């Protein structure tokens, strides 16, 4: 098999793009796509990268250092206190940040707020119940990512969400008739200074998960390949949708990118929906709740009893 770009020995087939590539040309192809799609959101701005230790966000950190080093301000890791997971993730993140010479901030939920996700999952904190752990995790991550970026004065935060994540979220929101959520699903969400919201950028929005995995392997990017200890028993709905799209992809190689192209067209035809946003009376960050207490402050209140 010959590389479509350099004529060397190809080992990678990108069926949706009708390309056969050698490892070098594959990496260049991915890097060029990211540069082309993302430059306009990054150029002349400073960002923090939210790194979880997983392959996507570790690849984002590597790519930012390689493609847009002048816009990379620092990396940060939130220690959520997930047993057998957070410690390992922290090690991997520290290892990559120091080898790339990127400043790393580590924020420990337990040290900052006196509780962690294990406390919630195991019911050690008053009122908190086990089934709430995944929701609490999502709220805590979203909140702290914004807070860290906002308070450090960077333009925004970059996450590791990839094309598969975006396609899965699109399909889930469509099937759940939650169309207004689709309006916020984008590679780039600008900051809203009045609401103390920093910008959000998904650097891998146009890169499929399989491509991220290949890229990380070729570039020897270290990452933690483990599941969250609290994903047990019933398969999360997202995973079901992901499997469905993977199955479709076998016959329709471009399906995931086509879903994202469909989303872009759909959003052009949708009315921008104004929903009220308030500032939380406790912490000053945004909330849609008219009672003006954000979800994060509610969790803090709940665990303290
Ligand atoms: P997830 O919600 O776990 O799918 O993660 C989505 C993105 O959020 C990741 O790609 C990271 O950019 C970021 N992220 C998740 N967990 C953490 C963490 N513990 N610390 C910093 N960033 C995180
Ligand atoms: Zn609050």
Give a description of the structure:
The protein has 305 residues and is α/β, with parallel strands linked by helices. The protein has one domain: Rossmann fold, CATH 3.40.50.620. It contains twelve helices and ten strands. It has a six-stranded mixed beta sheet with strand order 5-4-3-6-8-7, with helices on both faces. β9 (278-279) and β10 form a beta hairpin. α2 (55-67) runs parallel beside α3 (86-100) and α7 (163-175) crosses α10 (237-251). The longest helix has 20 residues, at 23-42. Residues 280, 282-283, 285, 294, 296-297 line the site of zinc ion.
Briefly characterize the structure:
It is built from 12 helices and 10 strands. With 305 residues, it is of the alpha/beta class.
Any chance you could write out the topology, listing elements then pairs?
Layout: E1 12-14, E2 19-21, H1 23-42, E3 47-50, H2 55-67, E4 72-79, H3 86-100, E5 104-108, H4 109-113, H5 117-121, H6 133-152, E6 156-162, H7 163-175, H8 179-182, E7 188-189, E8 199-204, H9 209-218, H10 237-251, H11 255-268, E9 278-279, E10 286-287, H12 295-304
Parallel strand pairs: 3-4, 3-6, 4-5, 6-8
Antiparallel strand pairs: 1-2, 7-8, 9-10
Helix pairs in contact: 2-3, 2-9, 7-10, 7-11
The chain binds adenosine monophosphate (AMP) and zinc ion.
């Amino acid at each position: 098999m010959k590389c479509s770009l350099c004529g060397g020995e190809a080992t990678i087939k990108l069926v949706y793009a009708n390309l056969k590539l050698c490892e070098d040309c594959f990496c260049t192809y991915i890097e060029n796509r990211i540069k082309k799609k993302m430059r306009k959101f990054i150029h002349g701005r400073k960002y923090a990268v939210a790194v979880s230790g997983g392959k996507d966000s570790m690849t984002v950190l590597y790519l930012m250092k390689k493609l847009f080093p002048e816009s990379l301000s620092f990396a940060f890791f939130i220690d959520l206190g997930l047993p057998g997971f957070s410690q390992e993730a922290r090690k991997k993140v520290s290892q990559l940040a120091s080898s790339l010479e990127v400043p790393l901030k580590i924020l420990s939920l337990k040290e900052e707020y006196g509780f962690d996700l294990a406390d919630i999952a195991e019911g050690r904190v008053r009122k908190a119940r086990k089934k709430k752990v995944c929701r609490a995790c999502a709220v805590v991550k979203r909140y702290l990512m914004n807070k860290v970026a906002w308070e450090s004065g960077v333009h925004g935060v970059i996450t590791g969400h990839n094309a598969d994540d975006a396609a899965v979220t699109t399909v889930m929101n469509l099937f759940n008739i939650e169309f207004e959520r689709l309006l916020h699903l984008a590679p780039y969400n600008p900051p809203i200074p009045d609401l103390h919201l920093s910008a959000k950028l998904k650097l891998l929005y146009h890169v499929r998960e399989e491509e991220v995995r290949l890229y990380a392997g070729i570039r020897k990017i270290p990452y933690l390949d483990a599941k969250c200890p609290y994903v047990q028993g019933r398969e999360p709905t997202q995973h079901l949708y992901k499997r469905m799209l993977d199955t479709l992809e076998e016959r329709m190689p471009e399906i995931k990118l086509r879903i994202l192209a469909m989303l872009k067209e759909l959003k052009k035809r949708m009315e921008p929906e104004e929903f009220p946003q308030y500032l939380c009376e406790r912490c000053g960050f945004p909330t849609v709740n008219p009672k003006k207490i954000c979800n994060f402050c509610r969790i803090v209140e709940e665990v303290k009893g």
